[in-house]
Specification:
Layout lengths: L9 H18 L8 E8 L2 E7 L5 E6 L3 E7 L25 H4 L14 E6 L6 E2 L12 H5 L6 H11 L6 H8 L6 H7 L5 H11 L7
Antiparallel strand pairs: 1-2, 2-3, 3-4, 4-5, 5-6
Helix pairs in contact: 1-7, 4-5
Length: 214
């Protein structure tokens, strides 16, 4: 389970999710196979980031003017709504979430009831919050595992991506993404020589990444 005190601010998490999604789309042309996804304007005033490991686990992070809400689902967790005799959300996960943030999860594609943890932070807050959830001894809600794939450093991302995508990852190029350098054709090519560079740059621009053209 995640230590909320050690979790970065919403803006830092948003930037890390954006960078991971940008790198993923270069390394993996097939969108449905990517681990990290990012939609700058998912709804008016709402940015959506998604983690999907393709094995039944996911995380949604929604960033708004009111605050940020993160909902995650670990399908192996004892807190899964599928784990009990009746399909139901584990008590305490949503009860204390502010209505303005909880309402964001009503969209069908966010699978509100597929949840094992939820954390949030309103804009006036200085800390992340979570509900009073009684987790059975020896069990886990999946928050450490899923939030752990919002990588803090270029080295962390490169190590993960090399194993996940089964390809060499040039750490110097990944570092330039983490440093918010403008993205060039050369950077895309060095990351993935087989990638359609023009297509990748177009997708990166849609994400809101800065592109440097000759």
């Amino acid at each position: 389970m995640i230590d909320l005190k050690s979790l970065a601010t919403p803006e830092v998490l948003r930037k890390r999710l954006l960078v991971a999604a940008a790198l993923d789309l270069i390394l993996c042309p097939e969108e449905w196979l990517r681990y990290h996804h990012y939609i700058p304007q998912w709804a008016p005033g709402v940015t959506l980031a998604k983690i999907d490991n393709g094995a039944g686990d996911h995380l949604f992070a929604l960033f708004t003017e009111d605050g940020t809400i993160i909902k995650g689902f670990d399908h192996e967790s004892a807190l899964s709504p599928h784990a009990g005799d009746e399909y139901e959300v584990w008590p305490g996960i949503y009860e204390e979430v502010p209505a303005s943030l909880l309402s964001l999860l009503e969209a069908e594609e966010l699978e509100k009831e597929e949840v094992t943890f939820c954390i949030w932070r309103e804009n006036q807050d200085t800390v992340w919050r979570t509900g009073e959830v009684d987790i059975p001894p020896g069990e886990d809600d999946g928050s450490g595992f899923l939030l752990g794939t919002i990588f803090e450093t270029a080295e962390d991302y490169a190590d993960w991506a090399e194993a996940y995508f089964d390809m060499p990852i040039p750490i110097d190029i990944v570092t330039r993404f983490y440093e918010d350098s403008p993205i060039t054709e050369e950077m895309v090519h060095l990351l993935n020589p087989e990638r359609d560079t023009e297509e990748a740059l177009s997708e990166l621009k849609e994400l809101g990444m800065r592109i440097e053209t000759n």
